[in-house]
Amino acid sequence: MSNLAVKAEHLSKMYRLGEINNGTLWQDIQSWAAIKSKKEDPNSKIGENKYSGDKDHFWALKDISFDIKQGDRLGIIGKNGAGKSTLLKILSRITTPTEGIIKIKGKIASLLEVGTGFHQELTGRENIYLNGAILGMKKRRIDELLDSIIDFSGIEQHIDTPVKRYSSGMYVRLAFAVAAHLDADILIADEVLAVGDAEFQKKALGKMQDLSTGQGRTVLFVSHNMGSIRNLCNCGITMEKGRIIFIGNIDDCIGKYTSSILSAPVSSEQQSERSYDIDKTKPFQVEKIQIINKYGNQLSMYEAQEELKIRLFCLSNNPILDLYCWLLLKTDSGQSIIICDSREDGKNIFNNLSKNNYVIDVTIPAGILSAGDYKLTLRFGSGSFPGFYIQCLDDTLSFKITDTISLRGNARNALTSVILNWNIA
Q1: Exposed/middle/buried for residue 139 (C-beta within 10 Å: 0-12, 13-18, 19+)
Q2: What is the distance between the alpha carbons of residues 271 and 269, in angstroms, rounded to a whole number?
Q3: What letter does residue 278 receive in the DSSP assignment?
Q4: Where are the alpha helices (DSSP H) in 216-327?
Q5: pLDDT for 237
Q6: Spatial distance between the Cα atoms of 198 and 287, rounded to a whole number of angstroms
Q7: Among 104, 152, 239, 322, which one is most buried in terms of CB atoms within 10 A?
Q8: In angstroms, rounded to a whole number, what is the distance separating the alpha carbons of residues 329 and 378?
Q9: CA distances (Å), origin 4, targets 90, 213, 305
Q10: How many CB atoms lie within 10 A of CB 29?
Q11: 3-state SS of the chain: helix, strand, coil percent to 5?
C-alpha cells in the first residue's frame, strides 16, 4: 500500500429488516463463535445467491473491491440506493462491513450529512477544536488554522453561537471548512454540498481540487451533480444495486451511469417510434419515424448534452417538385422550441432524389434542448403548391430530455432561428 490511500477487498454489508438475530439462540452462538475464531459463519449463505436478499435482510454492498491512489480525486456515482453512502460510512469507520477487508492509510475527515461530527450544544468555534482533537491535532495547530477556517466558512458573526441554531446552509459551510482545513489525509464528502448555495459549492469544489493537486490529499466525492463530478474528479466508481459496475476514467464512469438511466423502458406516455400505413397511390409518404441518439439507440429519455437525431423512413413513388419538410418541436405545455424546414440551409435534401426508398436524419445539436418533455410535428409540402400539405404528422412522437451533466434546469427559449442538419443516411 505504498502509494495507495484506500484498498478494499471483497467488501459486503448486510442489513437485517426487522430482525437483530439469526432466528434462534443456538444460531447466534454459532455465528459469534465463528467470528471469534475467524472462521466462516455457518449460518451465512454460500455462493452468489447469498447476495440476492430475502424478506428478512438485504445486501447494501455486494462483494466489491477497489484501490484508491494517494492524491486521487475519486467520484462515486450511482442511483439512490446504489450503496454509495453505505460505502462512505464504512470508509469513515462509522459502521463495519459484514464481510471483507478495508485498509486505509492516513487520517480521514468525513462530511457525510448535515450534523455529522458536531455537538449541537457547542458553539461553532468549540466544534472546530473538538473535530481537531478527534483527528489527533494539537491545540497549537488548531489555533494556527482557526482564522482560515472561520474565514472560509463565511459565518464569522455566528461562530460563537451554538450550532443547534444554525441553518442547514450555515452548518454545512462550517462543517466543510473544518473538514477541508484540518490535517486529514483523506477527505470524504457526500451529497451535503448540495445544501450550500452556488457560490459556496464553487468555493468548496475549488478547495477540494487544491487539496488534491496542491497538497497531495485524497478526495472521495459523492454527488448527483454530474457537472461537479466531472469538474473535480479524475477517476470514478459507478455503482448499481450494491455492486461496482465500472471503475476508471471519470468521463467513462459518467457515461456508464447516464446509460443505465437512459436505457430504462419507454413509458406509455412516450413514443419514440411510429409507423404509418402505406398508400401506393400517393407520390410521397413517411413510413416510419424514430427518435434516436447518436449511436442509433432508442431510449426512454435522452441526455441534453448529447446529439439527438430524428430519423425519417421515406417512400417516394413519383418525384415532387420542390418537396420540403416543415418541422415543429414544442414542449408538453405547447411552447414552440424549434420551428424550421428543410430548405433553410439552402440545400434542401428532398430535391432531386434518385431512389424510391430512403432514410433522412435530422440532427439536433447537443445542448439545444433543456430537460423536459417534447412533442414533434412534421408536415411535408411543395413550393409549387403553397398552403397545401402532402402529409401532416401532428404531435407524431413524444420524448423526454434529461440533463444530468450541465444541470441548467428547465429554462426553455424558442429557438426559431436554429438551422438543423438534414442528411440522407
Answers
A1: exposed
A2: 7
A3: -
A4: 226-232, 250-262
A5: 92
A6: 48
A7: 239
A8: 9
A9: 17, 16, 35
A10: 11
A11: 25, 35, 40
For residue 87, the one-letter residue type is L
Task: Name every residue whose Cβ is closer than 8 Å to that of residue 134 and which is 6 or more positions away in sequence.
Answer: 117
Q: Which residue has the cell 459549492?
A: 201
The C-alpha angle 174, 107, 109, rounded to 5 degrees, equals 20
For the beta carbon of residue 261, count every other beta carbon within 10 angstroms: 14
Place of cell 402505406: 278
| Domains of the chain by start residue, with CATH | 4-31+63-262 (3.40.50.300), 273-424 (2.70.50.60)
pLDDT in tens, 298-342: 777 788 888 889 999 988 877 777 788 889 998 887 888 888 888
All three cell numbers of 41, joined, read: 459463519
- What single-letter DSSP state applies at residue 53? -
196 vs 176: CA distance, rounded Å = 10
What are the cell numbers at 160?
460563537
- The C-alpha cell at 60 is 447494501
Q: Residue 309 has which C-alpha cell?
A: 437525431
State the Cα torsion 88-91-93-97 to the nearest 10°: 90
Q: What's the CA gap between 110 and 151, in Å, rounded? A: 20
Task: Give every strand in the sheet of 421-424, ordered side by side.
Answer: 273-275, 284-293, 308-316, 357-364, 421-424
Apex 26 CA angle, 23 and 29, nearest 5: 105
Retrieve residue 200's grid coordinates. Answer: 459556496
SS3 label, residue 213: helix
What are the angstrom distances between the C-alpha of 171 and each of 168, 186, 309? 5, 21, 46
Enter the C-alpha cell of residue 181.
482545513
Which residues have C-beta within 8 Å of that of residue 421, sequence separation ≥ 6? 345, 362, 363, 365
Mean per-residue pLDDT pooled into runs of 10, the chain (425 residues): 84 71 62 69 55 68 90 88 88 86 86 72 89 80 89 87 85 82 82 70 81 84 81 88 89 78 51 79 85 81 85 83 86 85 75 74 86 88 73 86 64 55 75
DSSP string, 141-186: HHHHHHHHHHHHHT-GGGTTSBGGGS-HHHHHHHHHHHHHHSS-SE
* Cα(138)–Cα(140) distance, integer angstroms: 5
